[in-house]
Amino acid sequence: MTTEISSTLLADFPAVAHVIVDLPNELGDELKITGSDGHHFVRVRRLRIDEVVTAANGSGSWRPYRVVESSGRRLDLIATAEVRVESPLTPPLRVAFSLTKGAKPEVVARQLTELGVDSIIPVVADRSVARPEAQSLVTRLQRVAREASMQCRRSWLPECLAPVTFTEAIDLPGLVVASRTGTAATGKPNSQGWTLLVGPEGGFSPTEIAALKSVPILAVGDLVLRAETAAVAGAAVLATQRSRLVA
């Protein structure tokens, strides 16, 4: 059984579920989904024989499959078409957000993934209260980004980086700062794209504000937003601008 695919865009393909495979090259003619993913598809989503599932490797390649077995915690799939390759969105969009307390970084990562952000970069600013262990945070963000990519049907996983200092953040390419005042993104950035910098609760310190004096400001709303809300609002503005540039 084969399926004709008229588009290389994963989001255009009709399927009931999507999975990101763990191994980059594992998009063979047959797939076996086990573990927590298998449990989710079989027990929670209750996928049945002949339903269509897409699988991606997180690096742009994806392929449609048909369910041939669904039992226990295991889903067996067989390919219905050849592997397709989806080009990354351009220009690149990065969000460098100052760390907040609790599970808020994971919430930010989930929503940024759904918006198509390419790189998610935690920042330790002067007023950042939370300073988690780097590898633990990266692992948590990667897990959330993978789950969100499966939900929103991305073929490219976002890059989740270890926390950087404010000084390192302001050296990132295409820097713009989220603020209550400023302008909407206009024109086309260079090939390096945008990096949206978002301050912590309470805002940037006077020293940091001075360092940002010549950096363009992106308006994200008239009211005072939580840090995590500002990150998502600014990313939505830039993601929309990117879509218009592509169109």
TrEMBL record:
Key words, A-Z: Cytoplasm, Methyltransferase, rRNA processing, S-adenosyl-L-methionine, Transferase
Catalytic function, reaction form: uridine(1498) in 16S rRNA + S-adenosyl-L-methionine = N(3)-methyluridine(1498) in 16S rRNA + S-adenosyl-L-homocysteine + H(+)
InterPro entries, alphabetized: Alpha/beta_knot_MTases, PUA-like_sf, RsmE, RsmE_MTase_dom, RsmE_PUA-like, tRNA_m1G_MTases_N
CDD domains referenced in this protein's UniProt entry, alphabetically: RsmE-like
GO cellular component, one term: cytoplasm
Protein name: 16S rRNA (uracil(1498)-N(3))-methyltransferase
Organism: freshwater metagenome
Known function: Specifically methylates the N3 position of the uracil ring of uridine 1498 (m3U1498) in 16S rRNA. Acts on the fully assembled 30S ribosomal subunit.
Pfam families named in the record: Methyltrans_RNA, PUA_4
Biological process per Gene Ontology, one example term: rRNA base methylation
Enzyme class: transferase
Domain Ribosomal RNA small subunit methyltransferase E methyltransferase: 92-238
Enzyme Commission number, as recorded: 2.1.1.193
Principal location: cytoplasm
Family: Belongs to the RNA methyltransferase RsmE family.
